[in-house]
Each structure stands twice: as C-alpha cells, then as structure tokens.
Amino acid sequence: MSRASATPSVRVASVATSPTFVVFVVAVLMVATAAFVAPAGATAASDAIAQDAPQSLSRTACPGSATAFPDVGSAHPFCVEIEWLAASGIGQGFPDGTFRPANQITRQALAAFLYRLAGEPAFSPPGSPTFSDVGVGHPFRTEIEWLADSGIGQGYADGTFRPTANITRQALAAFLYRYDGSPAMVLGAPTFSDVGPLHPFRLEIEWLADQGIGQGFPDGTFRPGNNITRQAVAAFLYRATDQWVVVANDGSIRTSRDTQRWVVRRSPGGPQLNAVASNHLGVWVAVGFEGTILRSTDGINWASVSSGTTQILWDIAHDGNGTMVAVGGGNGTVRRSTNTTTWSAVSTPTDLTLLGVAHDRLGRWLAVGSTGVAITSTDGTSWFSRTTNSPATLDAVAHDGATFVAVGGAARSTTSASNANVWDPVTTNETGYLNEIAHDGVGRWVTVGTAGSLRTSAGVTGPWSPIPSTTSEQLHGVDHGGGRWVVVGENGALATSSSGTFWIGFSTGTTAHLMGVAAIDR
Question: Which CA distances in Å does 266 have to 97, 294, 339?
C-alpha cells in the first residue's frame, strides 16, 4: 500500500507508487533573583524530588560527560533534567555560569515558563489589569494575564496574583494539570498520606502521580505545601513532556506519556497528516497534504508554519543536531529547516515522488520514493541520485547507525560507507506491502504493512520473522523510544511492545486512520 497514490482518507494499494519546551528566555530565570534564594539548609538532598518519578524516555547523556553548569556535576541527581533545560533554551542559568538548582522559583517566573512553553501565543493583555499587584508596567504582565485568560492560574480571592511568592508543589501540580487541559480522572484511594479525600488540590496531585510526573517522597507523603526548587521544576517539566505523538488522516493529533493513554490535542486541523518527528530539542513537526507543516514545542499546542509548497509532504526526519528535512510532492519535493519555523525549497535531481527520508547520524541523508528512486545528501541542501535497482516503489527508510534499510513494494539495504550507491535486496518474505520501518538503536528492526503485518529482525539480513498482530487493519507507522515500540494504522489501530515480538493493542477512541507515530528525541 504505497503512499504515492493515497487519498486524504486512506492509502490505496499500488506497487507503482505527536511538557517539550523551547525558547525560554534567560531573563526569565534572572528576574526577581532575590526571590530565588534558597532557605537556610536547603540542599539537593532535602528537595528529594529525585524520588518523584522514573526517568523519562530517551535521556540526554549526563553521567561521565561535561555539564553546562559548575554547580550541576555529572553525578547531580537532576543532571539530565537541568541539562535538557539548558540545551532546549529553557534556562541558561545565571551570569556567573551557575544554575543554582536548590534555589526556589516564583509564581511570575513559572507564568513565563508556561507561556513560552505554549509557544508564546499571540495575546494582548486587557486594558484594565486583572490583578491589583500586576499593573500595566509589570515585567511579567503579558505572561500572567495570559495565564489567567487561559484558565491556568486565576490568582487569589483578594484580587492579587502575588507574582514574587514562591511556587508550592501543590500549586505547580494545579498549573500543570490545567495546562494539560484539566483531563477527566476517576479518583480512588488516596495515593499520599498527606493528601486526603478533602484536600483542595487532591485531583491535581493525583493526576500528577498518575501521569508519572511526580510520585512523592519515600515516606509516602507528597508535601503539597512545600516550596519547589529550580531543579524540581526542571524535573517536573521534563517529565510532563508528552513523549509520543500520533498524527491522523483527519488532521487530528494525539499524544501520550506512557503509550497507553492517548489524548487529542489542540491543532489547527485541516488536511491529512502523514508523518511526525521531533528534533534534538524536543520540538515536534508534523507534515501532510497541501504542504501542511505543523509545529509544537510541547506536543499539546500546535501551530501552522509555511512550507512554501502545496505539494503533499510524506515524511520528515532530523539529523541529530538542528536540521530537519521533509520530502514529498510529485516533483522530488524537499523542504529544509534549521529552526523548524522557516522552511526553504531545495533542488533535487528527480521529478519523482519522495516518500521516505532518514539520517544516519554519521552525516548522510537518504530519501526514497516512487519506482525505487533514491537521493542522498550530506547537508540536506545538495542532493545526488543513487541507483537502488528496485523497480518497486520504496515507501520508507530507516537506519541503524551504519546501514539504511528501505521498504515498500520491495526491500533494499545500503551502507553509509558505500555512499548509498551499492544496494542489496533484503528478503522479508512479505507478500503484501510494507509501509514503514524503524530501528531501536541496539539491534532490532520492525517493519509494518498491509493486513496488520508485523515483521521483525535482529539484523538487516534477517531472518525477518512474522509477529502475531493485534489487528488486521493496515499499519502505517512504527517508531521506538524509551524502551517501547508503537505501531499505528487504520481505524484507530494502535499497539505497543517492549520487545518488538509481543504486542498489546490499546484503544485510541477514534476510527480515523493513524498515519504516523514518533517518540520524542532529546
């Protein structure tokens, strides 16, 4: 079932053819510095939020590597979360080069974090201030007014916001819960001994625990009234990031933190979406029909950006640094971006449809498509034709760090060392069509296709073994991250696996055709 002849609702058989956060300004972390001073005796150990949740998906390497801050060594319990905060541009620390992880953080600073987390949406504060202590000239007025307008934070009964007050753990739970859209949740027995049935923030705190964002302390308490530190905020925001994104033929977007519970997110809607990927900073980009490109810094809020084309965009990938490439069209369409916002047209040596693209993290891009076309590039700008000796269309391509494998109406492999000029046939024993392929980074490949087809191999040359599927629906997408596989397909089909050999199906609550899936890449 090739993408090249697909309609906006389904791919038609033909052999011939997803909180992450970015752009947080350094000034946010430096305003009201006095309010960031930790109380006497505060230490990383006393914060103890390291007990709060298991480590998230693909974690930035910290142990044994250099860190951005002299007061956050590679052995620091929050090293990964703080390094992610810095690498994402969320917080670069203080002028003296320190991060001051045990310092507390204010309500105004968190308002700014959430506003920028949402992508700094267009917003004009009301003429008359909402809060008596946040006047027209307040440096955080826009962020605080947006917080109130969006229903995330309404302030206090006396009409104040108290911008320089420190944030408590229960308040952060409430802010994150509302930011996530106040999802419905059935409460059972209390999780924490100090957050009983009548606690005013019980719902928000239980949600935080249920989502794996904050699990409390070893003694079974949550300590809701404790102020929260910069290192804990880094950890909570890191864990609150949606880890998986699925895109569908009706233009809808679904996200998940655990691959089991999927939430429909806010998006501009519109044409069919075909694929999604995240770059090394965790910025999500989805592509689809009519040149559609959607961008999100958190997986929750999505906005359209111009691709400069009305051609169908079929696939997207990134190079592990800052460049992303989208491919498609009926004329060798390639679009390239180094910031996920501005996309430029790139000339290619083919006028055929390009359906799949991947980067080997060693310096080479490979795009494949109709009638076995293949083109390569070392910079995403200059592309060169390669010969695959495949008369069949190649729909998708993935890499294992050394070898590319392309699938579709046939399967072929080539190494980066050969400049993608020498291709070998791959015997998958699949009689149907293969739509997508992925690699887990440590040895296992999974490919999906028609009639719920799932095949896996521990090496490029196989054997490629058929795996019992949870569905007979056509499968369109597969990806791996954080020790989990996810496959998606038509009529809302979705299944997950930790091994790649035993799969469990989960409901997504839709009959839409799920076209693409991706795990966050940090």
Answer: 37, 11, 22
Cα–Cα nearest to 192, from 61, 288, 302, 51: 51
DSSP annotation of 193 reads T
C-alpha 209/C-alpha 191 separation (Å) is: 8
- Choose the weakest-confidence range: 42-46, 134-138, 325-329, 503-507: 42-46
- Inter-residue contact 442 to 425 (CB < 8 Å): no
> Whole-angstrom Cα distance, residue 291 to residue 301?
20
The residue among 249, 255, 231, 98 whose CA lies nearest residue 172 is 231
Structure tokens at 351: 């006028």
Helix, strand or coil, per DSSP, at residue 139: coil
Residue type present at position 97 = G
Structure tokens at 329: 């069209």
pTM for the predicted model, two decimal places: 0.77
At residue 234, what are phi and psi to the nearest 5 degrees?
-60, -45
Q: In angstroms, rounded to a whole number, what is the distance separating the alpha carbons of residues 154 and 159?
A: 9
Mean pLDDT taken over the chain? 85
Instruction: With beta carbons less than 8 A apart as the criterion, state whether 138 and 146 touch.
Output: no
Q: DSSP letters of 11-55?
A: PPP-TT---------GGGGTTTGGGGPPPTT--HHHH-GGGSS--
Rounded Cα distance, 281 and 22, in Å: 7
Contact 363, 369 (CB under 8 A): no
- CA-to-CA separations, 309 to 329, 345, 356, 380, in angstroms, rounded: 9, 8, 18, 17
List all residues 6 or more positions away from 445 whose beta carbon is below 8 Å from its beta carbon. 398, 400, 405, 437, 438, 439, 456, 457, 458, 459, 460, 464
Q: Write the burial class of residue 74 (CB in 10 Å: 0-12 exposed, 13-18 middle, 19+ buried).
A: middle
Q: Is 202 buried (19+), middle (13-18) or exposed (0-12) by CB count in 10 A?
A: buried
Which DSSP letter does residue 513 get?
P
The C-alpha angle 64, 68, 69, rounded to 5 degrees, equals 100
Q: Which two tokens stand for residue 140?
A: 């955080």
**Which whole number is the average pLDDT over 217-242?**
89
In this structure, are residues 311 and 328 in contact, taking their beta carbons and an 8 Å threshold?
yes
496: alpha, beta or left? (left if phi > 0; alpha if psi -120 to 50): beta
**Pairing status of strand 484-489 against strand 494-497:** antiparallel
Is 388 strand, coil or helix? Answer: coil
- Higher-pLDDT residue of 485, 35: 485
Residues 6+ apart with CB under 8 A from 517: 18, 244, 245, 246, 247, 276, 477, 478, 479, 486, 487, 488
